[in-house]
């Protein structure tokens, strides 16, 4: 278009440009000269300003977790705000809680506690993600447990009773449903046809995340694993403020026992293990008094606002009933035990070690070995005999059967239900 301008147009444009130049004040000229002129060190001032701006724009890249994970999670979240778990709304009569300003204010007052348990959950997610990537047939069970536990200690910045492992790493195999971890010297190797329940816990300031999943390499077991995964999610869905524990159990059993699994040509109905339960969780107390059944016919007791629950389900191809068997590895100091006079000097010394390192959190023999305790079995038995420490032997269904497990920790917040340990994996 510019090529088609007439001579008159060009002249008019030229005169306009002259008028504009004349209307510029001397002050403007001085400002421009100052802006573009050299500074004392010879560099143009405008260039210096640009450099300063660019420097301030540069932000530090957020810290990324290493592989394998080695950076404590509080360094990955310098703001101190940790990821929220999955949020589920309450149903029916409790729907009003979602928008209640009074209930929201209650949550704001609990922010510090929520952050503590979310930090523990983030450690659990990162550790289990890595462990799922490396667990293979042929691994020594004791090596697997120690890898997992050392990673938890590093990521959570283990600090006495303020932060650390909440209970021993359960890695129960096949018909063993729970409470098995290798003692020192155990040579058990994970096999391709094993069904392993990996159950471990983390805590910050006594706020415990209890979460478990099942590992099976042979796809033949997939329906068994799916049964417990679905049953656990059903339990989470049914749980809530004012929900009756018996109703949660009935819903879990209905889903669990709708599954069948074919193992080596034989079909089994998946059964809920009727004498294993989920449970409420308190500060430094893994079992806080309420049990969440996984079969119908449980207690009429209601769940209440502010409570933590471990919703866990066990599906079995056996009898669906467990009993204590095998060598004990899990122990825990009784929560309400008072002062008990002890005659055995070694028992007194061992109790001091337990109080200082575990308090009322569960521990195993390997943890005592790690602290330098030796020749402690008689002292440990003495503490058990006196009712100070409770042994928790492995819980087993019939030999030759297979048990699977999935578990999450939930918090019944005033406005909603938070599945604290939920991750991308399950």
UniProtKB/TrEMBL annotation:
Pfam families: Peptidase_M24. Binds 2 divalent metal cations per subunit. Has a high-affinity and a low affinity metal-binding site. The true nature of the physiological cofactor is under debate. The enzyme is active with cobalt, zinc, manganese or divalent iron ions. Most likely, methionine aminopeptidases function as mononuclear Fe(2+)-metalloproteases under physiological conditions, and the catalytically relevant metal-binding site has been assigned to the histidine-containing high-affinity site. The keyword rRNA processing does not apply. GO terms for cellular component: cytoplasm. Coiled coil: none annotated. The keyword Metal-binding applies. This is Methionine aminopeptidase 2. It comes from Digitaria exilis. GO terms for molecular function: initiator methionyl aminopeptidase activity; metal ion binding; metalloaminopeptidase activity. Residues 12-25 have a biased composition (Polar residues). It is an enzyme of class 3 (hydrolase). CDD domains: MetAP2. It is found in: Cytoplasm. A divalent metal cation 1 binds at residues 199, 210, 407. Substrate binds at residues 179, 287. GO terms for biological process: proteolysis. It catalyses: Release of N-terminal amino acids, preferentially methionine, from peptides and arylamides. Residues 48-60 have a biased composition (Basic residues). A divalent metal cation 2 binds at residues 210, 279, 312, 407.
């Amino acid at each position: 278009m510019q090529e088609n301008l007439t001579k008159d147009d060009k002249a008019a444009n030229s005169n306009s440009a002259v008028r504009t130049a004349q209307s510029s004040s001397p002050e403007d000229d001085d400002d421009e000269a100052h802006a573009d002129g050299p500074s004392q060190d010879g560099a143009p001032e405008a260039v210096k300003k640009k450099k300063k701006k660019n420097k301030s724009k540069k932000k530090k890249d957020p810290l990324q977790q290493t592989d394998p994970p080695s950076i404590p999670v509080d360094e990955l979240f310098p703001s101190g705000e940790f990821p929220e778990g999955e949020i589920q709304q309450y149903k029916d009569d409790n729907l009003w809680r979602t928008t209640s300003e009074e209930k929201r204010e209650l949550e704001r007052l609990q922010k510090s506690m929520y952050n503590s348990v979310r930090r523990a959950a983030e450690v659990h997610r990162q550790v289990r993600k890595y462990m799922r990537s490396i667990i293979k047939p042929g691994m020594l069970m004791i090596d697997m447990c120690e890898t997992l536990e050392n990673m938890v200690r590093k990521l959570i910045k283990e600090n006495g009773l303020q932060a650390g492992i909440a209970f021993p790493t359960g890695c129960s195999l096949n018909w063993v449903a729970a409470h098995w971890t290798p003692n020192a010297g155990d040579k058990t190797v994970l096999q391709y046809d094993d069904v392993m329940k990996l159950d471990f816990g983390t805590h910050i300031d006594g706020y415990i995340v209890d979460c478990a999943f099942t590992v099976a390499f042979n796809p033949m077991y997939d329906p068994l694993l799916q049964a417990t995964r679905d049953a656990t999610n059903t339990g989470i869905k049914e749980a809530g403020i004012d929900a009756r524990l018996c109703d949660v159990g009935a819903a879990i059993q209905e889903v669990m026992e709708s599954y069948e699994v074919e193992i080596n040509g034989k079909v089994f109905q998946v059964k809920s293990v009727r004498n294993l339960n989920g449970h409420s969780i308190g500060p430094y107390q893994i079992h806080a008094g309420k049990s969440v059944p996984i079969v119908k016919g449980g207690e009429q007791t209601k769940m209440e606002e502010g409570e933590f629950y471990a919703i866990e389900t066990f599906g079995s191809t056996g009898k669906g009933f467990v009993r204590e068997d095998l060598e004990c590895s899990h122990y825990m100091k009784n929560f309400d035990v008072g002062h008990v006079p002890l005659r055995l000097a070694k028992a007194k010394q061992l109790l001091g070690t337990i109080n200082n390192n575990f308090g009322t959190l569960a521990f195993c023999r390997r943890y005592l070995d790690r602290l330098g305790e030796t020749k402690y079995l008689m002292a440990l038995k003495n503490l058990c005999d006196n009712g100070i420490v409770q042994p928790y032997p492995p819980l087993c269904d019939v030999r030759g059967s297979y048990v699977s497990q999935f578990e999450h920790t939930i918090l019944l917040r005033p406005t909603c239900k938070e599945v604290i340990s939920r991750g991308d994996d399950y």
